[in-house]
Amino acid sequence: MTYALICLPFLVVAVVFAVVAARALPPGQRHRRWAATGLAGVLLLVLTAVFDSAMIAAGLFAYADGTRLGPTVGLAPIEDFAYPIAAVLLVPAVWTLAHRRGGRRANGED
Amino acid sequence: MTGLAYLAGLLLSIGAMALIDARWRLAFWKSPGASAAALGAGTALLLLWDLVGIGFGVFFRGDSPWATGLVLAPELPVEEPIFLAFLCYLSLIAVLGIERMLRRDAGSDARPGGSASATDATSKPGGRHP
């Protein structure tokens, strides 16, 4: 349970950034952003299932007993999937906010 | 020597991502400042997340033959921030790349035969709000 609770605030931060960034986009682009986020999210979840399992199998890191909810995909604990979800929400959001801010002077493409 | 395998794999993957970025001018090759800010913020947040997890004893460094064994802090391998930066870069390229593909589809619907230039075509009307 500990691990899941740790993930929660970080996911909230990522969601907030994603919503704020999407609202800064005009409606057509906003729709496209959510669609792209969903598709990229699925891709990242699949990659995480494969590579997180590989990294755990390679002994790069390990988990303490009693801190996880239990379910895994391959070897990857489900909590680990919060990382790619947060990344796919947060990183493009920060990019969009910074890009639009910077592009306001230079007449811009998107 | 196998201790460098993980690190080398990460750097190679980041390099491959940069090639995609350069080829389609998605992130750093379009808006370097915004890309640096996004990767910096993403990596910092995920690193903080890691540190909280380590602090609560959720995960710890394994004893892998593929890792250098060097640590930045207790249980935090030097490879970790590089992995997190890679994850952030991958996320950014995936979203911006898929967005570009969706835009191209929309563009070619609107203008038959114009798919090759749809990337630029879509940046005009409505592409930007004051």
Structure description:
The complex is a heterodimer of chains A (110) and B (130). With 110 residues, chain A is mostly helical. Chain A has one domain (2-103). Helix content of chain A is 68%, strand content 6%. Chain A contains three helices and three strands; from the N terminus they run H-H-E-E-E-H. In chain A, helix 1 (2-23) packs parallel to helix 3 (82-103). The model of chain A has no long low-confidence stretch (mean pLDDT 92). A two-stranded antiparallel ribbon of chain B has the order 2-3. Chain B is built from four helices and three strands, in the order ααβββαα. In chain B, helix 1 packs parallel to helix 3. Chain B has one domain (2-107). Chain B is mainly α and 130 residues long. Chain B has helices at 5-24, 32-55, 79-110, 118-121; strands at residues 59-61, 71-73, 76-77. Chains A and B meet through helix 1, helix 2, strand 1 and helix 3 of A and helix 2, strand 1 and helix 3 of B.
Give the secondary structure arrangement, pairings included.
The complex is a heterodimer of chains A (110) and B (130).
Chain A: H1 2-23, H2 27-57, E1 61-63, E2 72-73, E3 76-77, H3 82-103
Antiparallel strand pairs in A: 2-3
Helix pairs in contact in A: 1-3, 2-3
Chain B: H1 5-24, H2 32-55, E1 59-61, E2 71-73, E3 76-77, H3 79-110, H4 118-121
Antiparallel strand pairs in B: 2-3
Helix pairs in contact in B: 1-3, 2-3
Structural domain count of chain B = 1
How would you classify the quaternary structure? heterodimer
**How many H/I helical runs of chain B?**
4
Label the structural class of chain A. mainly alpha
Largest sheet strand order of chain B: 2-3
How many strands, which pairing sense, and closed or not: the largest β-sheet of chain A?
Answer: 2 strands, antiparallel
Are there runs of chain A of 5+ residues with pLDDT below 50, and where? none
Shape of chain B: elongated
Helix content of chain A: 55-70%
General shape of chain A: elongated
Instruction: Report how far apart the termini of chain A are.
Output: 42 Å
SSE run of chain A: HHEEEH
N-to-C SSE string of chain B, H for helix and E for strand: HHEEEHH
What integer is the average pLDDT of chain B?
86
Task: Return residue spans of chain B where pLDDT drops below 50 for at least 5 consecutive residues.
Answer: 111-130
